[in-house]
Hints:
The structure is a homodimer.
Chain A: H1 9-15, H2 33-38, H3 40-53, H4 60-69, H5 76-87, H6 94-117, E1 121-122, E2 125-126, H7 128-132, H8 134-155, H9 158-180, H10 189-214, H11 219-243, H12 249-252, H13 258-261, H14 267-276, H15 281-289, H16 297-307, H17 310-328, H18 336-350
Antiparallel strand pairs in A: 1-2
Amino acid sequence: xxxxxTIVPRNSAEHGLVDAAKLVIARRTGSVDRLVALAASDMxxxxxxxxxxxxxxxxxxxxxxxxxxxxxxxxxRPLLTVAAARLMGGHGDRCIKLAAAVEFIHTATLxxxxxxxxSGLRRGKVAAHLIWGAPSSVLVGDFLFARAFxxxxxxxxxxxxxxxxxxxxxxxxGEVLQLSRAHDLALSQATYxxxxxxxxxxxxxxxxxxxxxxxxxxAAASAALRxxxxxxxxxxxxxxxxxxxxxSTETLGKNAGDDFREGKATLPLLLAIARLGPREVDFWQxxxxxxxQTSDDFRRARELIVGTGALEATLDLATSYAExxxxxxxxxxPTPWRDGLEALADFAVSRRA
Amino acid sequence: xxxxxTIVPRNSAEHGLVDAAKLVIARRTGSVDRLVALAASDMxxxxxxxxxxxxxxxxxxxxxxxxxxxxxxxxxRPLLTVAAARLMGGHGDRCIKLAAAVEFIHTATLxxxxxxxxSGLRRGKVAAHLIWGAPSSVLVGDFLFARAFxxxxxxxxxxxxxxxxxxxxxxxxGEVLQLSRAHDLALSQATYxxxxxxxxxxxxxxxxxxxxxxxxxxAAASAALRxxxxxxxxxxxxxxxxxxxxxSTETLGKNAGDDFREGKATLPLLLAIARLGPREVDFWQxxxxxxxQTSDDFRRARELIVGTGALEATLDLATSYAExxxxxxxxxxPTPWRDGLEALADFAVSRRA
Lengths: 353, 353
């Protein structure tokens, strides 16, 4: 499969199919603060550009886009683009435009995902489709996606355009694959990793790679930053899937237990099912397979997922991807930008939201 | 408004707000056959490229895309791209790739539109979202849109990329504007023309302009082909809106009366309302404003629209845009390609489906 290649091969060889008993990994507490401080003026430029380019004479468009964009989020993806470009010595505002484009692509996918999943909360606010309706969310997503490409064209970087066009296609493939395997209790861990590699890690990888390419990085440096983004994205999504069973709605900004209620077969669930063997089969088939849930089911699922060690195993796998991300940076001399990216990798796993 | 500028100004001055009594225009019978024959080998290449690039390891994607693309349609937009490029002396397969990209953008908007409008039929087949579900239609639309940009990047033409990225954004704006003014019986003819200029004519304009630019056309020639496409698109959409009250479901490939049942305020309806004045206000407010329709309402609406001359007036306006389209070609020497484009302009109005 096309996007299978985007999973960094050494991971699948080393620990692609997780057995937590074999993994003893120290989890480092990371922070996004160092990178945020370094990129402060650049990110102010990104925010200003985002605010300017979400405008339209059709007033529903900025209203709906603003609802989601002003809710914030961590802006990790555009931060990656800026950091990769500055690490490679890139000057000027080319990476600012690319970073805004990356955030627009991400926002477009969030709008469409929330329609697809019928989600209720996003970034701590009522999901846009519940206020403006699903049709507006679909069309404003299309608007933002097109705006992203307009911004990319302005940079004149065909290399960056190629990377982000491909990423946009791979993301859609990952989303469809996830949709077609929804409620599938027999989902293999390999297919699960394919899905998150495409739907999440690909944009992290492309965001970093496009930043590097736009700054004139050579093939080895671009590949290293792509590998960093790819592994960071996998760590981020695995931690996200763990948080759905471990975090509170208040800190998450979305409903804890959303994945479970939507019947999404994420790794914590798949591992728990595998470890329980024949036990609890009826429970999973009713609650996930047939989507017949009672109000107590999420609590019970959480107990099983924590009790079998599936939650910890998921976080261990996330940690190992974060370590791989940091290793990918070893070809660069130590600089504040490299240090900031390393701290970001640790943050992806140690965060609580 | 940004997309207002895309309405060719001379039209609005001459007959933007239609008064059919003033218009006595001979409608010529056109045909797409001449252009289809000239472009036969190019369009075979476009079809092959479309078939190749709709493929994905995620099997739902080609299945859903194929359902819509294999149903055919007239492929007018990619035909425009090819014809514009060949008219300007373009060689090679650059325009083939752009033409496939144009068709992918069009197909993506159809998939999303059918979800937005909850349409039942498209190109004579059950709409994709009724078979695979709305979520799949949304995501496969995203896939095709991204594929379009991958194809454009391959051509290396930043000029064509800029034109089609902008068009994609304008189309989304037009769709949102239409959605926000749905069921609005007070919609002005000017706003109606803005909507169809953005949601339909923009892609015709961009398809022709991108083909010209990719062949190295100068600014005057590119602008002329853009104007041709723009006017052709307006003629095409006006004829389409008339056909919804005049054609049969069998020849249309979609349900006759769809616009009426969806409460869309198109020109035939708006003109009939204007001409009837205070008469029938209750009927329109119930059937369109509040969307409370009986099975007999479409027949009655059709009688009023034909009886007031609103249908003929809409077709007259379509004819005048088709004439403008042909005038835009006057700067080019007569060649088989120019003749073919002229016949296409007449076809846009004289067609029965």
